[in-house]
Specification:
Strand order of the largest sheet: 1-24-23-22-21
Shape: globular
CATH superfamily: TolB, C-terminal domain
Helix content: under 10%
CATH architecture: 6 Propeller
Number of helices: 1
Structural class: mainly beta
Largest sheet: 5 strands, antiparallel
Low-confidence stretches: 1-20
Number of strands: 27
Length: 336
């Protein structure tokens, strides 16, 4: 074989090899940013972690909850819909008028809000328009679960969490009322935090202006509550054996932050670190209240929750759902 033929044959082999090799995957666009304030943050959010957009185009999204079928449920408050989305971004409507029928003007927070897995595959859902908590069974049938306190209708249940003994805690700010505290339909004189256990409903916190997100430490000795305004801060309470709370104190105050976003939904990881939606993003605190870093989403976040393998944090932020892969798993919920 002469040199020319050898060269042609070698070129053919090279081209064949190039043709069979898969093209390189395009780099994912970097969105948002991650602010690292303490070395301990790197053990929670690896340096190569990226914020990714799952789906968008919604009105105002809240209350994310991972479901056993591999979908994330979330509330679309202004649209009054409970939606679901797959990790690859396929969104569908699960329940229309998820907050209840309403005549409130457009732009009102009338839809469903926070939700939590309940027994037997059911889900408890906070309804703003109906001002109650409902139980949604596997067939998507909604049944009233909690409607009133001492004969008076709730303001608009917002977020909820279970303790390991089966007691339910939830917040009740006035955001679902068109005129909020000044709404003539408001029946309770306070915006409370409630505990429901063994058929008994108690108001355990009555002195917060806008109680919102809530969570327990993994050992359940500490109870966290976000206050959305006018002062913006997070509270921590000691939890007694009977489920009551005491010794409330502020563990982080962001009232002077420039961003207008407020403390809202929060979750805790298996090590006790807190992931709290606040001004500019998800604020990550150590158990003792030290600000370790911030996951700054492209839109102001309202809530977050664990999904996939338990190490993916899904974030609902205004019109979109985002996710970020973390190095530590979230605290396990009572019912999954």
């Amino acid at each position: 074989m002469n040199k020319k033929i050898t060269c042609i044959a070698a070129t053919a082999v090279l081209l064949a090899g190039c043709a069979s090799a898969p093209p390189p995957e395009p780099a994912k666009p970097t969105i948002g940013s991650i602010v690292r304030l303490d070395p301990a943050f790197d053990a929670l959010v690896s340096k190569d972690a990226q914020i990714e957009k799952v789906a968008g185009g919604f009105s105002f999204v809240e209350g994310p909850l991972w479901r056993p079928d591999g979908r994330l449920w979330f509330s679309d408050l202004l649209a009054n819909k409970l939606r679901s989305v797959t990790p690859d971004g396929q969104a569908t409507v699960v329940i229309d008028q998820s907050g209840g029928p309403t005549t409130a003007p457009p732009g009102s927070y009338v839809g469903s809000n926070g939700m939590i897995a309940d027994k037997d595959g059911a889900v408890l859902v906070c309804q703003h328009a109906n001002r109650q908590i409902v139980r949604v069974d596997k067939d998507l049938k909604m049944t009233p679960y909690l409607e009133k306190f001492e004969g008076k209708r709730f303001n608009s249940p917002n977020d909820l969490v279970y303790k390991s003994d089966g007691s339910l805690y939830f917040t009740d700010p006035p955001y679902g009322l068109v005129k909020q505290d000044d709404d003539p339909a408001k029946e309770l004189k306070f915006n409370g935090v409630f505990r429901y256990a063994q058929g008994k409903l108690q108001a355990i916190v009555k002195d917060l202006s806008r109680p919102n997100g809530l969570a327990f430490s993994p050992d359940e000795k500490v109870f966290y509550v976000a206050n959305s305004g006018p002062k913006r801060f997070w509270m921590r309470y000691d939890v007694a054996a009977d489920g009551s709370v005491s010794n409330g104190r502020v563990f982080a105050d962001v009232s002077d932050e420039k961003e207008s976003d407020v403390p809202d939904g929060m979750k805790v990881d298996s090590l006790g670190n807190i992931y709290a939606s606040g001004p500019g993003g998800i604020w990550v605190f150590s158990a003792d209240g030290k600000h370790l870093g911030t996951i700054k989403t492209p839109e102001p976040p309202a809530n977050c929750n664990w999904g996939d393998d338990g190490k993916t944090l899904y974030i609902t932020a205004v019109t979109s759902v985002y996710q970020i892969k973390l190095a530590v798993a979230g605290a396990k919920a009572l019912y999954r």
